[in-house]
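Example record for the data management plan.
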Amino acid sequence: MEKKQKKIVLFTSPGCKWCTVAKEYFKKNGLKFKQIDISKDTKAAQDCVKHGCRGVPVVLVGSRWICGFDQKAIEKALS
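Corresponding structural encoding:
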């Protein structure tokens, strides 16, 4: 039986280069993710700050918050 993918949420803002890199990484690897634009969702922006992230992208894998696009941390959180 195939292991179920952990839930991925990508917090982004318009014009964010690393947000685009993160989206391309998830798509290239066949990973499903939900994208939330923090410029339109103030609660999401507050959640990111509450978890120590001051900029975007922020990646939430399961219950693990990752500030910035850190491929190694994302791969570790998914395993």
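Summary line stored alongside the record: The first helix runs from residue 17 to 28.
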